[in-house]
Amino acid sequence: MNALAVKGLCKRYPAFSLENVSFSVPEGAVMGFIGRNGAGKSTTLKALLGLVHPDAGEVTVLGKSFREEEQSIKERIGVVLGGIDFYPKKKVRLLSDVTRRFYGNWQEEKYRHYLNLFGIDQEKRVDQLSTGMRVKYMIALALSHDARLLILDEPTSGLDPVSRDELTELLRRIAADGQRSVLFSTHITSDLEKCASHITFIKDGTIQHTGTLADFRQHYDYLRQPGQELTLEDIIVSVERRPLDENAII
Ligand SMILES: Nc1ncnc2c1ncn2[C@@H]1O[C@H](COP(=O)(O)OP(=O)(O)OP(=O)(O)O)[C@@H](O)[C@H]1O
After folding, report:
1. CA 152 → CA 71, 181, 182, 184, 192, distances in Å?
2. Which terminal residue of the chain has fewer beta carbons within 10 Å of its beta carbon, N or C?
3. Which CDD domains does the UniProt record give (predicted)?
4. Of 42, 187, 236, which is best to mutate to test ligand 1, by the most ligand atoms within 8 angstroms of its C-beta?
5. pTM (2 decimals)?
6. Neighbouring C-beta atoms of residue 100, cutoff 10 Å
7. If you average pLDDT over residues 5-30, what whole number do you get?
């Protein structure tokens, strides 16, 4: 079964359109959602979660229609969009107290386990946690209510290489049970080489390619020079980069 299926998602802003976005995240997959600045990654994630109203499209989570069963679906997903910067002075303990009330399936022993595993001190205020710790805390909350699908918008941005490595390993291991799945947007293609099983590539509001990492490499194999090993970064740069006008005054 797919953890997430998005079909024909459209969102029109005056100067930007998300056009007919379709892709699916199989259970057990870690899908990297890539595209350059302004390609429409955040708009897609917000529109599929109903945080901005889509103009068209169907979203199915774990076989259920998001539109028809939004409340029960929200129990099964964990969302990290832009962190928890809006409660900087609140203690972790207080945020957790508020969060656990929202979830009928909250599991306190799991919560304790993940806090311990990630080394998060409940007595700290949010502004005393590092950026990486904040992301881990949000993931701990999601896993404590048994989320089957994690949706994260640029979780590794602003993290040092060691924290990024820890986080990508964590995402990979979350999905390794074959039951949980991860969709995360990023610019940092080297992170995907470490943890993604699937890639969706968006450009100017339109999906360019979606499938397994191996399919993705195969699809863009024509860009490879003889003897060259193509990285994901090479592929994205080749597809996106516009040559600078030779006559331009610099
Ligand atoms: N509320 C809004 N009203 C009008 N235009 C918007 C709105 N939100 C986003 N946009 C536009 O939609 C386009 C896509 O933005 P979006 O944030 O989805 O891109 P992104 O791929 O997530 O970029 P980045 O990697 O820089 O975060 C941009 O041109 C942005 O200006």
Report:
1. 19, 11, 8, 5, 14
2. C
3. ABC_DR_subfamily_A
4. 42
5. 0.91
6. 15
7. 97
For position 131, what pLDDT does the model report? 83
In ligand 1, the atom with minimum distance to the C-alpha of 44 is: 18
Ligand 1 center to 107 CA (angstroms): 36
**pLDDT at 207 > cutoff 80:** yes
pLDDT grade, residue 51 (50/70/90)?
A: very high
| 205 touches 16 (CB < 8 A) | yes
Residue whose C-alpha is closest to residue 170's, from 187, 182, 157? 182
Q: Ligand 1 centroid vs 38 CA: distance in angstroms?
A: 5
Ligand 1: nearest atom to the Cα of 35: 21
Distance 42 CA to ligand 1 centre (A): 7
Beta bridge partners of 79: 151
